[in-house]
Design brief:
The chain has 761 residues and is an alpha/beta fold. The chain folds into 4 domains: 194 residues; 118 residues, no CATH class; 154 residues, Alpha-Beta Plaits; 246 residues, EAL domain (TIM Barrel), CATH 3.20.20.450. It is 58% helix and 12% strand. It has 27 helices and 16 strands. The strands form 3 sheets. The protein has an 8-stranded mixed beta barrel, surrounded by 4 helices. Strands 2-3-1-6-7 form a 5-stranded mixed sheet, with helices on both faces. Helix 5 packs antiparallel against helix 11 and helix 10 runs antiparallel to helix 11. The radius of gyration is 42 Å and the shape is elongated. One of its GO terms (molecular function) is cyclic-guanylate-specific phosphodiesterase activity.
């Protein structure tokens, strides 16, 4: 679409002509001998120029706005042709008959213009809104018709020429529709000029209605004060056409927003009452009963219809709002408000019938990493599917509600009175199984689990909020037990809950207060005992809580979103200690750090590792990064890209806790790591099946050129078994417990002559 140049000589001439015509009328429209000719030519010229501007707009615009200005151009052409016809008749004859052939062009103007202007406004949405719009137009039309100065006399119209009747009705319809349109929202590009069009048509409609009223009584003459209304209406239409093709940066949009956007809906709602007010004023003013009384009756009926439609809309809207208030927008499930409304009723019903129920609080484990890794759109798909799985495996009389981001509450009704606990636990286990099945989203296979807490009614409580609290507390105990499990509420957990809240509060800012420190556990060669490296393990000592086990605070850190800053602190502290050891002469000292899934998923993770190494002056080969299977398999391609980037820095990588997660051989083949760490749980059965598994894993790892570290070696017999099974490196209490810095340095000093670098990958 091409844009014409903003300056428009045609528009300037139109505005100048309108100003000169207004001045001429104010001066008394001299001289009397040529008054009709001058006035008619002014009319014709202003509308001809506005027609040219409208045609220009139609030519340069496209789509709905091309159609809009095409209809407006046709309307302006009809009016201009009518005015030309009127001018010729007036010049040749002493008086112009009414109606004259010119009226045909004048009558065609309103419907064509309305057709065009309709393209600029948003159409009513739906049948109800369309009916409301039509009723508004009818009410305003009849109300205007009842006003004597612009109204219609039914008896007169019945005897008037059809052209006159059509002109009266079309002009009233034009004025009415524009009044209603003015209260509605135009399409966005049209907001820069619909205000001018509305004003133009209000001037035009008012002038033409008054003209019809005057001419039928022989009171109109060219040059009357009415004439500038027509001329300025044409000028404003030309101005709107000009603005419609101006570049957006060159115009200031006259928005219907702001204060008018607030007032317009109120005016729309008041239309029926305004109509009633006008008609009653008209009746009390003593108007003749033949016309206005009939119009009053019709208006009253329309007002009743309009108010009935409004009541229907209000009732429909109320139902919609009620649904929205009690439904979760993402999943379509009942929300927390619905649960708070329905749960007390269910508990009351259970108490009356003596049939117990159970409240299950479900929290999706590690759902946040899915959002962080793959975005909220993927997270939403997983969440909807998880909710659907839960809902599919409930009975029709059970209740499910989404009460938080990844939290659901299920109310199991009508439990077996003889064994309500077993019934609820069986249902919870079944839900866990279904939620553990992989989720496929955009070609990815994602997995998650859930932690479920169970509270029984009436065995635990008969209060709805207390039941939810108990189930929530039981869910937290399930998380503490390792996730992907369920727990039933026990009353002696209250003091544990208080301690948990205290732990949460103290963990905030623990690093800034200097409460964290690293202990270092040695990893040694399985055959020679040579020190290979240390694993940095986080310890927390709080003045209030004392020494807090990682098994207690790491899950809390993950839940509270603190695991990433804690992981970054560990990386910095480990590199700082490496620099100190290297400066002291222990140049072959190496340390491995554990990295969480959230930290590894950060887009700038590798850059942050590189920056930390550079800041502390530590070579990449002195650092190793330990990652779990679940961290790496979420997105194998992205994980391998980061692993390759770490290897380019010299940083080694290890697959930690192998055997406790997916332990898929296909994943092991595809993951580009240097080391495989066999989980400590295999040591507990090293003399039985555990030993066979360690041997198989070790041989497989060696075939894939991976070094094997066996964790949890606590006895000399276990060490001998690992040696016989082919393990490369061991770690565990038989070698050493995790050591504070001073003791680790002593261990390092004692092992210094035998310290050897890792073989190259």
């Amino acid at each position: 679409m091409t844009q014409p140049a903003p300056p428009a000589l045609t528009l300037r001439v139109t505005l100048l002509l309108s100003a000169l015509h207004t001045a001429w009328v104010l001066l008394g429209a001299p001289p009397a001998t040529t008054r009709d000719l001058i006035g008619n030519l002014a009319f014709f010229s202003s509308y001809a120029l506005a027609t040219i501007l409208s045609a220009r707009a139609a030519r340069h615009l496209s789509g709905r706005f091309n159609r809009a200005w095409t209809f407006i151009t046709a309307a302006m052409t009809c009016w201009t042709a009518g005015q030309l016809t009127y001018t010729i008749i007036d010049a040749r004859y002493a008086t112009v008959p009414y109606p004259s052939p010119a009226e045909i062009g004048f009558v065609l103007f309103p419907p064509l213009f309305l057709a065009g202007i309709g393209y600029m406004f948003n159409a009513p949405a739906g049948r109800v809104q369309t009916a409301t719009f039509a009723l508004d137009v009818a009410i305003v039309l009849l109300t205007l018709a009842s006003v004597p100065v612009i109204g219609l006399n039914v008896n007169t119209l019945l005897h008037d020429h059809p052209i006159v009747v059509a002109q009266h009705i079309s002009n009233l319809l034009l004025l009415t529709t524009m009044m209603v349109f003015a209260l509605r929202q135009p399409h966005n590009p049209a907001r820069a000029y619909t205000g001018w069009l509305t004003l133009a048509l209000l001037l035009f409609g008012t002038a033409h209605i008054l003209y019809g009223n005057l001419v039928t009584r022989g009171l109109y003459a060219v040059g009357s004060p009415l004439d500038p209304l027509w001329v300025w209406a044409a000028a404003l239409i030309g101005l709107a056409a000009h603005r419609s093709v101006m570049p957006a940066t060159a115009r200031r949009a006259t928005h219907t927003g702001g204060r008018w956007a607030t007032i317009a809906p109120v005016v729309l709602r008041l239309l029926p009452y305004l109509a009633i007010t006008v008609t009653f004023i008209r009746a009390f003013a003593g108007a003749r009963a033949t016309g206005p009384d009939t119009l009053t009756l019709i208006t009253a009926l329309l007002v009743v219809a309009r108010l009935s439609l409004t009541e229907y809309q209000n009732a429909h809207l109320q139902r919609q709002l009620q649904r929205q208030a009690y439904l979760d927008a993402l999943t379509g499930l009942p929300n927390r408000a619905a649960l708070q409304r329905d749960l007390p009723n269910l508990i009351e019903s259970a108490a009356m019938t003596g049939v117990p129920l159970a409240v299950l609080f479900i929290d999706l484990d590690r759902f946040k990493p899915i959002n962080d890794l793959f975005g909220h759109a993927t997270g939403d798909v997983v969440l909807r599917e998880a909710c659907a799985r839960v809902q599919r495996h409930l009975r029709p009389n059970d209740l499910i509600a989404r009460v938080g981001g990844d939290e659901l509450v299920v109310v199991l009704c009508d439990l077996n009175a003889d064994a309500p606990g077993a019934t609820a636990e069986h249902a919870a286990a079944r839900l866990l199984d279904h939620l553990a099945q992989p989720f496929r989203v955009d070609g990815r296979q994602l997995t998650l689990s859930a932690s479920i807490g169970i509270a029984h009614v009436p065995a635990d409580t008969t209060d709805a909020s207390t039941a939810l609290s108990y189930a929530d507390l039981a869910m937290y105990q399930a998380k503490q037990a390792g996730r992907n499990t369920h727990r039933t509420f026990q009353h002696d957990w209250h003091h544990q809950s208080s301690a948990q809240f205290e732990l949460d509060a103290q963990l905030q800012g623990a690093a800034a207060r200097g409460e964290f420190e690293l202990h270092y556990q040695p990893l040694v060669d399985a055959r020679t005992g040579t020190l290979r490296s240390f694993e940095a393990l986080l310890r927390w000592h709080n003045p209030t809580l004392g020494a807090v086990s990682p098994a207690q605070f790491i899950p809390v850190a993950e839940t509270r979103g603190l695991i990433v800053p804690i992981g970054e602190w560990v990386l910095r502290a480990a590199c700082r200690q490496l620099r100190a050891w290297h400066a002291a002469g222990y140049t072959h000292a190496r340390v491995s750090v554990n990295v969480s899934a959230l930290q590894f998923a950060l887009p700038d993770f590798v850059r942050s590792v590189e920056a930390t190494l550079r800041t502390h002056g530590v070579p990449g080969h002195a650092l190793a990064v330990e990652l779990t299977e679940s961290t790496l398999i979420q997105d194998l391609e992205a994980s391998n890209a980061k692993l390759a980037a770490l290897h380019a820095l010299g940083v080694r990588t290890a697959l930690d806790d192998f055997g406790t997660g997916y332990s898929s051989l296909s994943y092991l083949q595809r993951l580009h790591v240097n080391t495989l760490k066999i989980d400590r749980s295999f040591m507990q059965a090293i003399d039985g099946r555990g030993g066979a598994l360690v041997r198989a894993i070790t041989h497989l790892a060696h075939d894939l050129d991976l070094r094997v570290v066996v964790e949890g070696v606590e006895t000399a017999q276990q060490l001998r078994t690992v040696q016989a099974l082919g393990g490369d490196t061991v770690q565990g209490y038989h070698v050493s417990r995790p050591l504070p810095v001073a003791q680790a340095e002593a261990f390092l000093r004692a092992a210094r002559p035998a310290l050897e670098p890792w073989p190259d990958p």
